[in-house]
Write a structure and sequence with these properties.
By secondary structure, this protein is an alpha+beta fold. It has two domains: 164 residues, Diaminopimelate Epimerase, Chain A, domain 1 (Roll); 143 residues, Diaminopimelate Epimerase, Chain A, domain 1 (Roll). The relative contact order is 0.17. It has an 18-stranded mixed β-sheet that branches. The chain has six helices and 18 strands. Strand 11 and strand 12 form a beta hairpin. The termini are far apart.
């Protein structure tokens, strides 16, 4: 089978975008999972954190489905939504679109460049729920906001939130960030365990300054990523709840892949979050692949580079310097 795709990224969280509207591939559910496992494999010539499938929607401008590199489907992806939103907006010749995702129809809007020459989009992150049954997290309480889970750590204060992807978030110091604790903790609760039956994304936050945070995320189904959009959104929300930052004001969120801005809105106890950042295209490719289960065989027939990454690398260098300087304090 021949598949056309675009390699793209949001904050270094990279994806292969496949348009199922222009070409009727007739993928089955198992096809989508097998393609993700095959093409996203980092040992191959493409590699990515996941695949964004763009489909028709009966109620929005387009529909996005996200499959992780391990073939599992994510309910949402903030960085991926920016890329999907850009694709739909440019395809339809508009600057604002509504994208249907698994649990909500979300707005995407073109913004002023976050850094000169970088295509930038704002996406809505919602719904937000602190109910542990929505994560899910098996504890004998309704919510977990800045509290200990003694079985996981004697020291860390955790917040569990679904946005709608499940997240477990903790604010830490530089020593904890430099340790292996996040890796060990994340791997443990993404294997069979009594707390998180479906696994969970785990983020550690380091406060850099007022209005500036650093977030590192272990993403279920992927592992450590350059960035996770819903994790950065959830982390911004947590710092507003703890008083480190303020709602309705932009928080600069730095990550191993670069930087985004998040704005937390409180609508009488119902939260939404604006996630603002790049949607960068790396290349377009045509791939010949065998989509049968377990095959994993594909060949890249054509690859046409875009010229956007150079600008993004300038932002990335600037972001890395901000983080390095802050972590030395």
């Amino acid at each position: 089978m021949l598949i056309d795709l675009i390699k793209c990224h949001g904050s270094g969280n990279d994806f292969l975008l496949i348009d199922e509207v222009d070409r009727d591939y007739n993928f089955t559910e198992s096809d989508r999972a097998n393609i993700a496992k095959s093409l996203c494999d980092r040992t191959g010539s493409l590699g990515a954190d996941g695949i964004l499938y763009i489909l028709k929607s009966g109620k929005a401008d387009g529909r996005m489905r996200v499959f992780n590199a391990d073939g599992s489907e994510a309910s949402m992806c903030g960085n991926g939504l920016r890329c999907a939103g850009r694709y739909v907006c440019e395809k339809l010749g508009i600057e604002e679109a509504v994208i249907e995702t698994m649990k909500a129809d979300l707005q995407v809007r073109k913004q002023n460049d976050i850094y000169p020459g970088i295509p930038t989009y704002k996406v809505e992150i919602s719904p937000v729920s602190f109910r542990l049954e929505d994560v899910p997290l098996n504890l004998d309480q309704e919510k977990l906001i800045n509290e200990k889970i003694p079985a996981l750590s004697d020291d860390l204060l955790f917040t569990a939130v679904a946005v709608p992807n499940p997240h477990l978030v903790a604010i830490v110091d530089s020593d904890v960030l430099a340790s292996d604790l996040q890796k060990e903790l994340s791997e443990g609760i993404n294997r069979p365990n009594p707390f998180f039956p479906d696994g969970v994304n785990v983020s550690f936050i380091k406060i850099l300054d007022k209005g500036k945070i650093y977030v590192r995320t272990f993403e279920r189904g992927v592992g450590f990523t350059n960035a996770c959009g819903t994790a950065m959104s959830a982390s911004s929300l947590v710092t507003c709840l703890t008083g480190e930052n303020k709602g309705e004001e932009a928080t600069e969120v730095y990550n191993p892949g670069g930087m985004v801005k998040c704005v937390v809105h409180n609508h009488d106890g119902r939260y939404t979050i604006d996630l603002i950042g790049n949607a960068t295209y790396l290349y377009a490719a045509r791939v010949k692949t065998d989509i049968s289960p377990g095959s994993g065989l594909f060949e890249v027939l054509e690859k046409d580079q875009y010229e956007e990454q150079e600008k993004y690398e300038q932002l990335q260098k600037q972001a890395q310097k901000v983080v390095e300087d802050a972590l030395k304090r």
